[in-house]
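Before the break, one more example. Copy the sequence into your notebook; we will annotate it together after we see the structure.
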Amino acid sequence: MSSTTLSAASAPSTSKVFGHAEPRVSVPAPLRILSEETSLGPQVIAFAAAIGEPLLPHEEIAVMRMFELSPDTGRLRFRYVLIQAARQNAKTHLSRVITLWRMYMSSRPQTILGVAQDLSQSAYAWELALRTAENCPYLAPSIVLKSRASGQYRFRLASGAEYTIRSANARAGRGLTCAMVVFDELRTQVEGDGWASVTSTITASPNGQIVALTNAGSDKSTVLNNLYATGIAGGPDSRILVMSWEAPPGCDRDDIEAWRYANPALGHLFDLDVLQAQYQALNPAEFRSECLNQRVIALNSAVDLEAWAACGDAGGTLDAHRARVVCCFDSFGEHSVLAAAAGLPDGTVRVELVRSWDSVASARTELGPLLDRIRPRKLAWFPSAAAGFAPILRARPGSTEITGPAIAEACMGLADLTASRQLSHGDDPLLNKHIAAAEKGSAGDGWRFVRRGSHGSITAAYAAAGAAHLVMSEPRPQRTRIRLLDF
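Here is what the structure looks like once it is written out:
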C-alpha cells in the first residue's frame, strides 16, 4: 500500500485524487460473473440514470453485489446487506435509489421501511426520496399519498407501494410486512431492540432484504459489530453480504492511500481538502471512525490515545523517587486499583500502577499491608471506594477523598498532562486498556470519566488521574533567586 502522507499530499497537484471504487472488504464472493442474467444490479443502474440520479462507480458495484441472484432459486442471494463507508460517501443517495427502484419497478406493491436511531434522520432520507419522485416526470404521476401528519411519514403510489419510516426501537417493525428495510447508521444500535424488531418484517417476502448503511462505530456498537463479524465468518452459503470501504488496520491517520480506501466518493462528491480539514478538526478516534471507517474502542475518548502512547516509557521507574510518591486508590464493582505518582526533576509527572484486584475481598485484605510498605506521602481515593474501604483509607495520615469538582479536575488534568506530553507512564497493558475505554461525561463546566455504560472497568484510569492530581495540587518548589548588584 502506498504510504503517501498528508504532508506530502498537501503540495499542489494537477491530478485529482479519487477513492477506490472496489470495497476493501467484500464477502462472500460472487458465485458467478455478475451480469444482467445473474444480478438485478444492471436494472437498478439503468433506473438511476433514467430518473436523473446516476450512481457513482462504487454504488454500481454495491448494487451489482447486493442484488445478486441465487443460481438455485433465482431469488436474491442475500437477505442481509451491510454497507460500510466513511461519512458523506453517498450512502443516503444509494438508499434513495434502491428504495424508489423497489417501489416503482416491482411487479407487486412493496412496502419499504426506513429506520434510524433518530426519527429526524429517517425523515431526512424520506424527504429526499419524495422530492426526487416529485421532480421526476416519470415518477411524479404515480404518487397518490404523501403524509407527515403526527409524525407518521407515508409516501404511497397508485400501485400500492409505500415508503414509511420509524424510529429504531422495540416497536419499529410492529404490524409491518416489508420488502426492504433500510437501517441507517446501524452503529448507533447498542441494546439492539430496534434491530431485532425489524428483522422479522421481511419473513413473508421472498426477495426481502434488510440493508444496513453505516460507518464504523466503537466497541459499544454491538449490533453492527456482531453483524460484521458474522458476515465475515460466513462461507459461500451465507445470506449476509458485507461490503466495507475501510482503511487498512494499523494505518497512519495521515496516509492518503488509507483515505482512498475508506472514501469511495472522494474525487466525485468532495476533494482531498475536505478530508484534510477533518483531519485537523477531529480527534483521532473520531477521524478513524468517521473518515477512515475504522472501529475504535470509544468515540468520545477522554484522553488523546496517540498522545498517551507517546507518553509511554516502560523502562522508567519511580524507584529513585520513593520519598515523593503519592498514591490513589479506586474501586468500582469488584475491580480495584492502586496507582502511584511523583513529580520528576524534568517537570513531568510519572504515573504507575502498583496493584490491581479482581475481588473486593482480596483488595480489603491486601491494601493495608501494601500501603504500609509503600508509605506514600499522600493518599487519595474517589467516592466509589469509600463505602467498602473507608476504615482502611481514612485512618492513613495525609489521606483525602477526591469529591465534587475535584473529580473533574483530576480527569481533565490527566488528559491535559497527556496532550502536553508532560506525563510519563509505564505502558502497563491494564492502564492502557482503561484509558482507551474512558469516555467524557459532562460535569458542571467540565467533564469526568464515565463509569456506567463504559466499555468495561476504568478504575485504573481513575486511580492514575487521582495520583497525578495529587502531584499537580502540590505547591511547586521555589527556586532561590540571586540578584547580581553592579558596584
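The longest helix spans residues 119-135. Residues 7-14 have pLDDT under 50 and may be disordered. Try to locate both features in your own notes.
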